[in-house]
Design goal:
The chain is mainly beta. The chain is 0% helix and 27% strand. The two termini are 41 Å apart.
Length: 85
């Protein structure tokens, strides 16, 4: 981890985590009387974005329509591209 962030309350929205990136956190508590040691470091890897599901294609002559379902609320900033072979 290359960046240390001091904060009393810091929340990273799940959508801002990069898929496959490892994040490590440790917590330290201090008050006006004494500094407590940091907790052990805890690391986790953000899960990859889920692929689209229920993929289907409708065809009429030479016109093709590719459709799929996607959890927009979980990953609203995803774009798709389709290649033909």
């Amino acid at each position: 981890v290359s960046e240390v962030m001091w904060s009393t309350n810091y929340i990273i929205p799940p959508l801002e985590l990069l898929p496959g990136e490892t994040y490590c956190v440790k917590v330290g508590v201090y008050d006006t009387m004494m500094v407590k040691p940091f907790s052990p470091e805890q690391c986790f890897t953000a899960p990859p974005k889920a692929p689209p599901y229920n993929v289907r294609m409708d065809a009429l002559d030479l016109m093709y329509l590719l459709r799929w379902d996607w959890d927009f609320e979980r990953s609203p900033d995803v774009t798709f591209s389709v290649d033909s072979w």
